[in-house]
Amino acid sequence: MTPVKTITAPASRAPEPSVDRIEELANRILKGDILLPKFQRDFVWDKPQILDLLDSIASNYPIGSVLLWRSRETLRSERNVADLEIAPTQQDYPVNYLLDGQQRLSTVCGALYWSGLDPLSRWNVAYDLREKKFIHLDSLEDPPLHQIRLNKLSDPSTYFQQVSSLDTLAAPDRNVLKDNAKALFDRFKDYKIATVTLHDMSIQSVAPIFERINSKGTPLTIVDLMRAATWSEDFDLIDSINDITIDLEVKNFGGLDRKAVLRSISAAAGGGFSEASIDGLRKHSSPTLKGAVAETKEAYRKAVDFLATDLRIPTDDQLPYVNQVVVLSELFRRLSKPTAAQYAEVKKWFWRTAVGGYFGGWNTGNMAADQDAVKQFASGTASSIECGVADPGAGIWTTQQFRQNSAQSKILILLLAFNQPVDLLTGQKIDINKALSPGNSKEFHHFFPRDYLTKQQKITTRRANLVGNIIMLTAGSNKKISNRSPSDYLKEVVSQLGANLDNALAANLISKEAFDAAMSNDYGAFLTARAQTIHRTVSELTGW
Q1: What are phi and psi of 425, to 5 degrees?
Q2: 351, 407 Cβ separation under 8 angstroms
Q3: What separation in angstroms does the CA of 73 have from each of 35, 145, 208, 530?
């Protein structure tokens, strides 16, 4: 029997650094050896930015590195750059995709090789040899002798023929201008730029490597890569995702992460939520992709309506975990009209995954399990959406720091908002819309003032800033409380609220036990009692 040979795929090589002449890189773009994926439709740099880059090169300032991805993967790429046509690329041949540096190399291509007929083109650039600066021309006629068009640099013979015309000028002006012209030529011929080339990597591996290498500018994401992988004349992935998020703005959920929406599109196209599944979108036709987008758009409408109406979550900024909406959208895609009992189970699932921190470590295995659980629930095979999250206990409210972007902090804020909290010093209702507006932190303050805890009780700032110590309070009242002890300022609260004291405390999730502990300035007892109250409220929502 003939033994079966095992073929092992070649391991990907480490990123390869090199130093290349910038003119050669630009020339490789025009020859089709370096391709510009369709991450963005148009050149977006304005004229001053173009001149600034050219000046940096002429001054020998660093302009950053470029990132290439050498691959046989097929990405839709630009066929022209800076008004210049790109040569055809050989079929079935590894090409170099330019992932970072498109604007910079496009600028160099345009400036050095422009041959257009529009006098107002951004590429109609000249160098003033007297002023030693770059300028934009507004005519196709030859400029004065001391100004030389930059596109002549690509042809040394033409360039120095122009330089020789300076001999008609008188010395010493002639000699200075000729020296400046030679210096400009040498700089552009010799200017080098750091290049990093990625070899033999999958498309889902490229984006995180890019983000690690590139510390400035707009990060490249898998959404950008997949746009290039799926682009056609009648389908643009980013436009499609933007269409979905714009549709959600009416419910204040227009800021949902594009990658989350991409996961949902992948599932609607028959794949999964993972990046490996997302890569499968490249295999689908434009009609199939459009159908998946349409299904996703309708599913997101229903999911967001559920979040805003049934769960009373006011904005996408208050979602404990963005990927919760990915699973919800898949549920509503498969189950357009849940029963009352199913709605109740979905609510429990939402709060369980939020409080239990399930999506804090959402991996490929979880994604597949969640997709299957939704399928079982939507088909009626299962009566609940299994996620395997256990009750973490009341201790999470006395161990987690309050940060408005953390899940536990968002949950507390939502719980307080549901209770329609009142300002303890004035008895007035807190403006929930204002309090929950993105970026607002002025309504959230420490029940035990932080300065009091750190200076009087010598408690660390970290312990003073625990979630269980946070209430909603207007900035004015917080200023009045300042660094006073609870036993001091709470006397004013008792006097101000009178018979309404118990209701005001309950609205802020403060029990009688927690209040009594505060009146004794016992921070530890207060935290324990309040954490139990918060978690009792959570248990009602989760069914734990």
Answers
A1: -85, -30
A2: no
A3: 12, 48, 17, 56
Farthest CA pair distance, the chain:
99
pLDDT per residue over 267-283, tens digit each? 999 999 999 899 899 89
Quick check: 110 and 104 in contact, CB under 8 A? no
In the block, residue with structure tokens 């000028």: 169
Tokens of 264: 């949902």
CB 72, CB 92: distance < 8 Å: yes
Q: Which residues contact 481 (CB under 8 A, 6 or more apart)?
A: 425, 445, 449, 473, 489
C-alpha to C-alpha distance for 531 and 397, rounded to whole angstroms: 5
Q: Is 35 helix (H, G, I), strand (E, B) or coil?
A: strand
- The interaxial angle of helices 512-519 and 523-542, nearest 10 deg, is 160
Amino acid code (one letter) for 73: E
End-to-end alpha carbon distance in the chain: 60
- What pTM was computed for the model? 0.74
CA-based nearest residue to 34, from 65, 64, 7, 70:
70
**pLDDT per residue as tens digits for the range 30-67:** 998 898 887 655 556 889 999 999 999 999 999 988 88
Residue 28 and residue 91 in contact, taking contact as beta carbons nearer than 8 Å: no
